[in-house]
Amino acid sequence: MTSVEQLYGVLEEIRADEHNNYVVELCIPKDNVPNAIAVEAGSAVGEDEIDNPNWPPAGKF
Predict the structure, then answer these.
(1) Pair 6, 13: CB distance under 8 Å
(2) How many CB atoms within 10 Å of residue 45?
(3) Peptide bond into 56 cis (omega under 30)
(4) SS3 state at 50
(5) pLDDT, tens digit, for every residue of 5-25?
(6) Distances (CA, A) of 33 to 30, 41, 45
(7) Which spans in 1-61 are helix H?
(8) Are the C-beta atoms of 8 and 16 separated by less than 8 Å?
(9) Between vectors from CA 2 to CA 14 and to CA 43, what angle results, nearest 5°?
(10) In Å, what is the CA distance from 46 to each residue of 15, 23, 61?
(11) Which of 31, 21, 26, 20 is CA-nearest to residue 7?
(12) 30-44: b (≥16 Cβ within 10 Å) or e
């Protein structure tokens, strides 16, 4: 997806279909990240957390 209008369109399609599950991928420019996310991004574990024996970090959750 490349625009907010496309996102709105997809969300409307999803709302109209109660019988299926969906995954929506959003691409957000690195320089347009909300501060609340940016603060955690440096310490967050990525997709490989299942293979990380130290996951979850003590006291994180």
Answers:
(1) no
(2) 13
(3) yes
(4) helix
(5) 999 999 999 999 989 999 888
(6) 6, 10, 17
(7) 4-16, 35-41
(8) no
(9) 90
(10) 29, 18, 16
(11) 26
(12) eeeeeeeeeeeeeee
Nearest to 59 by CA among 46, 48, 43, 47: 43
Residue with tokens 């299942």: 50
Confidence bin at 1 (pLDDT 50/70/90):
low
Amino acid 34 reads P
The DSSP output letter for 49 is G
Mean pLDDT rounded to a whole number for the chain: 78
Structural tokens at position 21: 């599950």
Residue 38, amino acid = A
